[in-house]
Amino acid sequence: MEINFNEKELGEVANKFLSALGDVRIVTFEGDLGAGKTTLILSICKALGVEDDMGSPTFPIIHEYADKDDNPV
């Protein structure tokens, strides 16, 4: 099954995802190359208020950003 979202819809998906997480603080993403993991993660970080330059979380061991309240993401 293939599901596609435009940029606005992806922002809404990110917000719904964050709401569904509740107090969960660790999430893993798994999928084929090109599945959209990085795009979704960047949208989630944007929804959290991250203003840092972000890249693919796949290659480094740890990517840490700060949200609008300076909490680690």
In short:
This protein has 73 residues and is mainly α.
Structural overview:
Helix 1 crosses helix 2 (37-47). 36% of the residues lie in helices and 0% in strands. It is mostly helical and 73 residues long. The protein contains two helices and no strands. The longest helix has 15 residues, at 7-21. The chain has helices at residues 7-21, 37-47.
Shape: globular
Please indicate the percent range of residues in DSSP E strands (runs of 2 or more): under 5%
The percentage helix is: 25-40%
The description of the largest β-sheet is:
none
Number of strands: 0
Which helices and strands, and how do they pair?
Blueprint: H1 7-21, H2 37-47
Helix pairs in contact: 1-2
Tags for this model:
73 residues; 0% strand
